[in-house]
Amino acid sequence: MRTPTAIIAAVSALALTAPVHAKTIAVAAGEGAQGRLQEALIAAQPGDVVQLGAGRFALTDGLSLDANGVTVRGAGMDGSVLDFSGQQGAGEGLLVTSDDVTLRDFAVENTHGDGIKSKGADNIVYYRIRVAWTGGPKETNGAYGIYPVASTGVLVDGCKVSGASDAGIYVGQSKAITVRYNMVEQSVAGIEIENSRDALVTGNLVTRNTGGILVFDLPNLPVMGGGNTLIADNLVVANDTSNFAPKGNIVAGVPRGTGVMVMANDVVTVRGNTLVDNPTAQVLVVSYPQPFTDKTYNPVPRHVLVDGNTVRGGGNEPQIPGGVQLAAAFGGALPAVVWDGQGAQPAVTGQDSHLLALGLPAEQIGMAEAKPRLIGGSVKVAIAAANPTGAPAALDARAKP
What we know:
This protein has helices at residues 4-17, 33-43, 323-329; strands at 24-27, 49-52, 55-58, 63-65, 71-73, 80-83, 94-96, 102-109, 116-119, 124-132, 144-149, 152-157, 160-162, 167-172, 175-180, 183-185, 189-194, 197-202, 205-207, 211-216, 227-232, 235-237, 258-263, 266-271, 274-276, 281-286, 302-307, 310-312, 337-339, 347-349, 355-357, 373-375. With 401 residues, it is mainly β. The longest helix has 14 residues, at 4-17. The radius of gyration is 23 Å and the shape is elongated. 53% of the residues are buried.
């Protein structure tokens, strides 16, 4: 006869070795979708799949998920649509505050606030998600489409965003990040990496935004000191939408027609991208333009390498003070790389090897004090290239059919 101690030990061993019996919670579109979907997200346990049926889910309030290890899966980014056109509050469409969550194969439309926000959610995957404001670029659109913040381990893969009044894909105050194979259009910023480290931004198409890909550091945030970001092999084309950000937002100052913008960040490499017809500048490297009180903040760019990009057109309508005169002085278009003259001089090699230094004497100084000069040839400055690992490899397995 087995003793009670032996039985307890056997049960404990079974609990440790037996797989969790995950379940699929199916939620169909149709009447009562708001309550049924939120109930499913509340009931979900680690390993469960909340399966969205095909069709349009008419929702009137935001949704939330706070259980670890849950997958929310739809019938495709055009198959399962969470429609927030009738949303009564001003919040995001979906808020995730738990770890190891996978969001895949569905769409979010017309939220009053952000599309999908994940906060403090480590090892999160966004895969084949579509977020859109279907009325086109408007100041009243939500700020962010896909918005992971304060996370370690972020993968945004194969998504599509349009119409965000701040950034289509924004990753902030995070580390170990991969943003790849996405398409962002008609947003103020296409993709933005802010106060984050070890980000790989690769294989994306950003077009018809105000600015294509932005790497920023801002003061007075809980996480400071962003850097080691690689922007590689992206297609950055015709980002020429007028800036429609609400007044006072930091991105309201992004010039229409910016391809890649690096501001006040450290160790950023822009390599192997195709930069076409971005009318202000293909690559813009600048300091932070506003007053600040954060003594830990470094407002100037450092260790920026622009290497081996393919450049066509652009620089022909620079939306900076004196831009028309500057373009005329350079034969009708600015060089591919424009630097405000603050911080360390960027290293520029390859086809885009001419650097226009605006020669601003200090950050927060206007163009009236500029002393522009062309630095020609391959600009040889010894700078170590960024080499981020990106998101943990384990996240890739969750971004597969």
